[in-house]
């Protein structure tokens, strides 16, 4: 497995693979890899001849008061994980390689990026769409893999691929959790032992929401309210949002009909965590 830092090295490698008729999968990440990322890379390795993992903490998707500088980084450990799972190439560019001087072109999605996380993080999805578009142009994969953990991101990338005619199959992969239910996240490393315990309230609320729907509750607002009530019992938790939206358009719904995404962002201390489930009637 190779680790490269430049766009030209990625292009040269992919060109050789394509000449040999090999299929290419891409797994975009911000690094500090865990079992969630691993499941995406494994799936990509099963479905493609060659797999590229990008590891790039993308500055344009962080707001000015967010954790860009503090975001955990460990390239050596990440590269070892990628190699052990069977990736062929790690692309680890510096910000200057991706955003040269005078960079002024962004991919901005309307509507889908204006709800949920997009409300609290107004430039986040512009940064995500821009960097993912760039990675798609650089790697030209046949398939790209994203986690359901970031459900709004997955919906937005699917829409972007459709709207901008990328010839790439987007594969969504299930949420990987810790044994006690907490969704795996690089940001879990920010949690103190006390906060780590408190963070369980997110997956407990997800579980409650799922249970309510399984018991036949169809009133989305009632489900959301019960989930909020549960989260509010945890003193260290502060709700950013809990909301039910159409799983494709990301617009609020009041009834559990069709495919509904029930998503949340909750601060545990200073750490903002997300979780979600999809209900399909
Ligand atoms: P990140 O490094 O946080 O940008 O995540 C890179 C990719 O891994 C995204 O597509 C995420 O949705 C996915 N991912 C992160 N955490 C998980 C998880 N716990 N389960 C499944 N996929 C995940």
Structural summary, described in words:
The protein is of the alpha/beta class. The protein folds into 2 domains: 2-173, 3-Layer(aba) Sandwich (Rossmann fold), CATH 3.40.50.620; 186-276, Pantoate--beta-alanine Ligase, Chain: A,domain 2. 38% of the residues lie in helices and 21% in strands. The protein contains 10 helices and 9 strands. Strands 1-4-3-2-5-6 form a 6-stranded parallel sheet, with helices on both faces. Helix 6 (124-139) packs across helix 7. It is globular. The mean pLDDT is 98. Bound molecules: adenosine monophosphate (AMP).
Mean of pLDDT: 98
- State the end-to-end distance: 44 Å
Listing every helix as H and every strand as E from the N terminus to the C terminus, the arrangement reads EHEHEHEHHHEHEHHHEEE
How many beta-strand segments?
A: 9
Give the C-level CATH assignment of the largest domain.
Answer: Alpha Beta
Q: Note the main sheet.
A: 6 strands, parallel
Bound molecule kinds, no repeats: adenosine monophosphate
The CATH architecture of the largest domain comes to: 3-Layer(aba) Sandwich
Instruction: Briefly note the CATH topology name of the largest domain.
Output: Rossmann fold
Global geometry: globular
Name the CATH superfamily assignment of the largest domain: HUPs
Count of alpha and pi helical runs: 10
Which runs of at least 5 residues are low in confidence (pLDDT < 50)? Answer: none
Number of domains: 2
Structural class call reads alpha/beta
Radius of gyration: 19 Å
* Beta-strand percent range: 15-25%
Spatial order of the strands in the main sheet?
1-4-3-2-5-6
Q: Specify the helix fraction band.
A: 25-40%
